[in-house]
Design goal:
It contains 19 helices and 13 strands. It is α/β, with parallel strands linked by helices and 432 residues long. It folds into 2 domains: 200 residues, Periplasmic binding protein-like II (D-Maltodextrin-Binding Protein, domain 2, 3-Layer(aba) Sandwich), CATH 3.40.190.10; 205 residues, Periplasmic binding protein-like II (D-Maltodextrin-Binding Protein, domain 2, 3-Layer(aba) Sandwich), CATH 3.40.190.10.
Length: 432
């Protein structure tokens, strides 16, 4: 998963660019120029254009861009199968942050040496930086980061007498405001990774963790059965059973949440920054009126308890070098080029995906394109990563199964069930 909600809308463009990049690589191969293969998540073609640019600037290699499936689990599965077979064709890969620890623990990633690491981590925001190391080694380079904001209809907030930008604005207050105005709150609650993103953000915002002692592997300790887990379950269940729940909430992803928010009953939504440019595109296409965009406000992700700042969700992509590459120096050059500050800015403007480096948000063109740039930067810096564990897929799937549908989520029953189920899965006592 790209954790941005844009993959489905951009897959066709990326596939077309892959064909173009593949033809370019073939020509380089005929001429004897080394070919670096970069496996990417689907985007609007920005990574492919960046690959061509970096290759041209180097003059020492060409790049063959291979597009992975849109679904995060399928991305992981395809890469794991190849790397388990020691596939040397995987030179560089775009990795969803939760999979970094698993790949590193399995010996699938080439660690960066200390001399290489400094340039790759300089000025990187705290959130994405926390997802790039395993056992004190830098094993992935922050490429772009992402976070969710609270999006609200200004007219609804005004009528409800609430200020979503106020530090003490909480989920409870938002549910109350939406219910009072007969409006809905857009969330991602289908049984997929986006739901795990929401659950994790609620737990860590309440001061807890889903699992601890992660370096113990299968002996890691599930901690979702806790006061923080109970608070998360209470709020998610309360919303799902309230009038503020959008229709078919338990099958909703990013786009369904966006559709509900832009509709006549839209009031609030948590979602990635792409939704703002997508709304403007809808105006240009005649799908919605300009007044809808004019009515959109934004703020930091809502808190779970008043007085405690939220830990917003963290998404994005890290770049890693395959452990079995036969061209590590060229692969390193490509990673350096793609993750530079200059290209952080360029990629953010090209793709709409937020930068991992703090200074990118000071660029005038970025600030013009993203009027909420400061909120995005602070949210990414303060974000709460999903569990960093080599068994992340087991952890995430355990949570999704036991917390779905959201209408059945209750405290303390759901966190208790989730903790037991997760422990059994990790110990091999139960299958997913």
């Amino acid at each position: 998963m790209t954790s941005s909600g844009t993959g489905r809308r951009r897959l066709a463009a990326a596939m077309a660019l892959t064909l173009s990049a593949g033809l370019l690589a073939a020509c380089g191969d005929d001429s004897g120029v080394p070919v670096i293969t970069w496996y990417i998540n689907p985007d609007n073609g920005g990574q492919g254009r960046l690959a061509e640019q970096c290759a041209a600037e180097s003059g020492a290699y060409t790049v063959d861009v291979q597009v992975l499936p849109n679904d995060a689990s399928q991305q992981r599965e395809q890469l794991v199968r190849r790397l388990a077979a020691k596939d040397s064709s995987i030179d560089v890969m775009s990795l969803d942050p939760p999979f970094v620890a698993e790949f590193a623990n399995a010996g699938f990633l080439r660690p960066f040496e200390s001399a290489e690491a400094s340039a790759l981590t300089e000025d990187v925001l705290r959130g994405p930086l926390a997802t790039t190391t395993w056992k004190d080694e830098l094993v992935a380079a922050p490429f772009w980061a992402n976070t969710q904001l609270l999006w609200y209809r200004k007219s609804v907030a005004q009528a409800a007498g609430v200020d979503p930008e106020a530090p003490g604005f909480t989920w409870d207050r938002m549910i109350e405001a939406a219910t009072g105005q007969n409006k809905v709150i857009g969330v991602q609650a289908n049984r997929y990774e986006g739901y795990m993103v929401w659950i994790n953000a609620m737990v860590v915002s309440a001061g807890g963790e889903i699992i601890t002692d992660v370096e113990a592997g299968r002996d890691a300790k599930p901690m979702i059965d806790s006061p923080a887990g109970d608070e998360a379950a209470r709020i998610i269940g309360d919303l799902a059973r309230s009038p503020a729940a959008p229709p078919a909430m338990s099958t909703a992803g990013e786009e369904e949440a966006r559709s509900a928010f832009q509709g006549a009953n839209g009031g609030f939504m948590v979602n990635w920054p792409y939704v703002y440019s997508a709304a403007k595109e809808d105006v240009a296409a005649g799908g919605i009126d300009q007044s809808v965009v004019d009515d959109i406000g934004w703020a930091r992700y809502p808190g779970v308890t008043a007085g405690n700042p939220s830990r917003p969700p963290l998404g994005g992509i890290n770049l890693a070098i395959g452990a079995f590459t036969q061209q590590p120096e060229h692969a390193l050059d490509l990673v350096r080029c793609a993750t530079s500050l200059e290209n952080n800015v360029a990629y953010m403007l090209d793709s709409g995906n937020p930068a991992a480096r703090a200074a990118a948000y000071d660029d005038p063109k970025v600030r013009e394109a993203f009027p909420m740039a400061d909120v995005i930067r602070q949210s990414i810096n303060d974000a709460g990563p999903r569990p960093i564990t080599p068994y992340y897929n087991d952890v995430s799937t355990s949570v999704q199964i036991t917390w779905h549908p959201a209408t059945d989520v209750r405290a303390p029953e759901t966190p208790e069930e989730s903790s037991t189920f997760m422990s059994d899965v990790l110990q091999g006592k139960r299958l997913l």
